[in-house]
Amino acid sequence: MTDVTAGTTTYRQALHDGLRDALAGDERVFLLGEDVGRYGGSFGVSRGLLDEFGPERIRDTPLSESAFMGAGIGAALGGMLPIVEVMTVNFSLLALDQIVNTAASLSHMSGGQFHVPLVVRMTTGGGRQLAAQHSHSLEGWYAHVPGLRVLAPATMDDARWMLAGALRDPDPVVIFEHGSLYAMEGPPPGPGPVDLDHAAVRRAGTDVSLIASSQAVHVALAAADALAEEGVSAEVLDLRVLRPLDTEAIAATVGRTHRAVVVDEGWRSVGLSAEVSARITEHAFYELDAPVARVCTAEVPLPYAKHLEDAALPQPRRVVAAVHAMGLGG
Amino acid sequence: MTAAPDGVGLLRAMLRIRRLEERCIELYSAGEIRGFLHVYIGEEAVAVGVMQALTPEDDVVGTYREHGHALARGIPARAILAEMLGRQEGCSHGRGGSMHLFDAGTRFFGGNAIVGGGLPLAVGLALAARMRGERRVTACFFGEGAIAEGEFHEALNLAALWRLPVLFVCENNQYAMGTALERSESQTDLVLKASSYEVPAWSVDGMDVEAVAAAAAEQAAMVRGGGGPCFLEARTYRFRAHSMYDPDLYRSKEEIARWTARDPLALQTAVLREEGALDDAGLAAMEADVAAEMDDAVAFARAGTLEPVEDLERFVLTEVPAA
Ligand SMILES: Cc1ncc(C[n+]2csc(CCOP(=O)(O)OP(=O)(O)O)c2C)c(N)n1
Do you find a cis peptide bond into A244, omega within 30 degrees of 0? Predict the structure, then answer.
């Protein structure tokens, strides 16, 4: 165990500790992906693990997302517990066929004879001026697919412990790590485990629910701070698990506040925010005092220039404005 | 065809890339350039040598390490730096940044940060040229890392099968981020790999700009003559880390020193001195000239304007001018 027990740690370190624990705890676990070994992981999460666990278990792959994802699936079928790292969700599209048509489908197609206990980790999100081919938030695409569990750790605890739960899941799990969160500092995570089924209220409130996941949770929390100064009490619900969505928690928060703003770094059209909004309509319609509002990324491939990127991504002030538009505060 | 390359011109073209990128590193350290920055320092001879073999009608497909490709192709340093500073005067309107330089005027089709993604694109450009009866060649740059991607194999097969005019230029700088070629390929002879698709292929010393220019000229002539695609492997090295984020923990100092001793600019300078084509004064004048060009480009980029935020959602779809 490498838990930090005092001071602060980072989201990156929490992920690293979770990974190290998983490798130390079960011989079947191994990590494979581009530059996970000698380079240390493109975002530094696996740095040092090659020295500790060796090249069999910290396995650098060639640039061949489809092939190494497929190999991960095969290894999972063969009794191993592979963790496949894809550098970013943008590049995972080269592996989409394997993830969707094989990993997610195999159990069902085989009438339950085969299971794919695979964990896929990938970076997502914008905010770092990396432009369109490195910045997108496509979690919703994965959350669309039956056969997958989709996780989005936004906190130190989730970064530290979601992996352990994912490895216990007999089916494929995709974990999205937000690029802007790696450097986030905070108190060290508590003892695990964390559950992989439920959303979590990160801040309680009575006037409006801000429903978010991943980095957008932090946008929502900042908005809630600003709203509090105006006397508006916002509840922040962190979805955590994007598939299966915790409909009960969504309905429950709306039942408490009667207003909802969905904050999502994906695009609005046909996205995760649309799904959350629809669940509210289906399950909490009569609780609503105002139409559900959404704050999403502008419908553009993300631009490089900082002022345009900022304008494209959900920002606390846009969330505050959405709440004002509901007739609260302002 | 362009005129036979003149040695001094080749050096000058390489020097412009080197000095441009040194400015980029400074601007990055100062926080004026953001995002990922991948410099080409050490590899200049490849872009410069290959570009000699192209005409303005030809197409060029670059990678995300494309500042050198872009500058050698003729995109002004001003437009490149303005792009990196996120200004609307940049060659991609400030929306692309370092990894996504584009320029229709010089037929420069990116600036692609999906490794291997440019190869099928090049096949398509070449197919279009053929179907339209145009004699263009499409030059496609990619790293040796891209050879592991399916796109490489699919693109080579198609280009060869349909005998399309593509000049595939593999910049073999030995590493894909931290992964050395022998750790990513079972067969490290890239020429052999390309040959298996019935594509004429050979290697060239990528530190020797005249050798690259000669090889590229020969291949471009074959491609232009209707012989189908060619594959040129340029053996080179990047002197700097993969990107500004890379701590460069996977290469030895000795290895780096071995390659920097073969700096393409120094090699070409020595050749020119030997030939008597360049002396100290000539070199100093060239340096001063290039420095002035880069000063001007930095000033231009800094003075550039930011696109109004109201225009954020522009360019997503083609803008049809009002009738
Ligand atoms: C499809 C895809 N996978 C992974 C990456 C991340 N990545 C960016 S550059 C790079 C290395 C590419 O090496 P190579 O093709 O040899 O080019 P070089 O950087 O050496 O010029 C990687 C893995 C990417 N951009 N695209």
Answer: yes
H helices within A198-297, ranges in order? 215-229, 247-257, 272-284
For chain A, how many structural domains are there in total? 2
Residue A169 structure tokens: 């899941």
CA-wise closest residue to A94 among B148, B186, B219: B148
Domain extent for A277: 200-325
Report how far residue A186's alpha carbon sits from residue A179's, in angstroms, rounded to the nearest whole number.
16
Q: Are A239 and A209 in contact (CB under 8 A)?
A: no
Compare all CA atoms of chain A with the CA of B86 and give the residue at the minimum distance.
A305
A149/A44 same-domain check: yes
Do the strands A119-124 and A81-88 form a parallel or antiparallel pair, or are they unpaired? parallel
Q: Using 50, 70 and 90 to split pLDDT, how confident is the model at B204?
A: very high
Q: How far is CA B26 from CA A312, B22, B29, in A?
A: 28, 6, 5
Residue type, A78: G
Q: Are residues A207 and A181 in the same domain?
A: no
- Strand duo B166-172 + A293-297: pairing: unpaired
In this structure, the answer to whether residues A256 and A179 fall within a common structural domain is no
Residues of B in contact with A304 (CB under 8 A): 34-35, 83, 86, 92, 94-98, 100
- Nearest Cα residue to atom 20 of ligand 1: B176
The pTM score is 0.91
Q: Which of B177, B248, B259 to mutate to test the pocket of ligand 1 (most atoms within 8 A of CB)?
A: B177
pLDDT digits (tens, 9 = 90+) for A280-328: 999 999 999 999 999 999 999 999 999 999 999 999 999 999 999 999 9
ipTM entry: 0.86
For residue A172 the two structure tokens come to 């494929």
Euclidean distance between CA atoms A67 and A94, whole angstroms? 9
- CA nearest to A62 within chain B: B184
Of B183, B246, B309, the CB nearest to A307: B309
Write out pLDDT tens, residues B24-62: 999 999 999 999 999 999 999 999 999 999 999 999 999
- Answer yes or no: do A176 and A310 share one domain: no
